[in-house]
Specification:
Number of domains: 3
Strand order of the largest sheet: 1-2-3-4
Helix content: 10-25%
Radius of gyration: 27 Å
Distance between the termini: 58 Å
Structural class: alpha+beta
Length: 181
């Protein structure tokens, strides 16, 4: 829980004050004190997993608290005296950072269009509980595989999809002087 007042910032965990900070008057920012207000350890949740924090000057802890910034940036914060000295012995491989840098491998067997209107993907979504301003509760999308250009149409019922496709077909074929394959 976070509370603000009287130019003081308090961060609580299970009704215990975990961190405090003070308002920098010139910048209208709260400066978080790096000295723990709660003793030696507490439990917290970072990136969806629970961690027990025994050392508030842990490099790995600050790496996670500051949005997985690099070790060099944490060292710069220490050299600029924004943070107190940091213990980097626990700063090891960050699994969340590795997962975030992974990319999907491309499937070589997938066909990709080589020209506009060669392949159109379509999808109907709905019904949605919240209707549009005009009462539509579905939408249908048409996406050109080559250009990735998308068209969206709001519809009242799924049964309108064929009529909407005919309208879409006439519109794009006239627009681009090409026929859908």
């Amino acid at each position: 829980m976070c509370s603000l007042g009287n130019n003081v910032f308090r961060l609580s965990f299970n009704l215990d004050i975990v961190r405090t900070g003070s308002l920098l008057v010139n910048d209208n920012l709260y400066l978080l004190d790096t000295v723990a207000s709660y003793g030696e350890s507490f439990n917290t949740e970072l990136c969806g997993t629970k961690h027990r924090i025994d050392n508030t000057n842990s490099g790995a802890l600050w790496h996670k608290f500051l949005g997985h910034i690099s070790k060099n940036k944490i060292e710069r914060l220490v050299s600029n005296e924004i943070l107190d000295s940091i213990d980097f012995t626990s700063f090891d491989v960050c699994v969340e950072c590795i997962k975030g840098k992974q990319t999907k491998s491309r499937k070589l067997s997938v066909y990709r269009a080589t020209n506009i209107l060669e392949l159109i993907h379509t999808n109907i979504c709905g019904p949605f509980h919240t209707h549009s301003w005009n009462g539509q509760q579905y939408f249908i999308s048409f996406i050109d595989d080559y250009s990735r250009y998308a068209y969206f149409f709001l519809i009242h019922e799924k049964s309108q999809s064929l009529d909407v496709f005919k309208t879409f077909k006439v519109k794009v074929e006239n627009q681009l002087n090409k026929r859908i394959k």
